[in-house]
Amino acid sequence: MEIKEVTDCNQKEMIARRVLHDLPEWFGIPDALEHYITESRKKPFLACFDNGHVVGFVVLHETSKDCAEIFVMGVVRVYHRKGIGRQLNAAYEDLARRSGYSYSQVKTVQMGHYEEYDATNNFYLAMGYKELECFPGLWDSWNPCQVYVKHLRT
Known about the structure:
By secondary structure, the protein is α+β, with helices and mostly antiparallel strands. It has helices at 9-21, 30-40, 84-98, 115-126; strands spanning 2-6, 45-50, 53-62, 67-75, 103-109, 130-140, 143-151.
């Protein structure tokens, strides 16, 4: 596996589109899907490759001068539970630290609403993220927004 920063906007879009379309349980709302893909073109973007084939990616978004956010992350289904998410998270955190951020945050659907998002929550907890706050109406009443934070130690 190789993780590389991708700078070409068209390649970012192609990678995001390919990976996210493989994950409709997480990215099944068409408008939200297109938002992630379009906005990912403009942000720092890391992709994971297996023998030249894209298997996942993560995108960094600045929320303040001190805090980066995992804007979107995805790993193609056949590569789930193989450590790709951990590798992408480690590369993202390294990029965030090198970029001068002290903290990271991520937003996801609160635990207890969907099995897929429970797995997502457990992943972030395993990566050392801590619950900060839940915003029940940020997205909509069916998808309460859980915010996790992590101090990026140097």
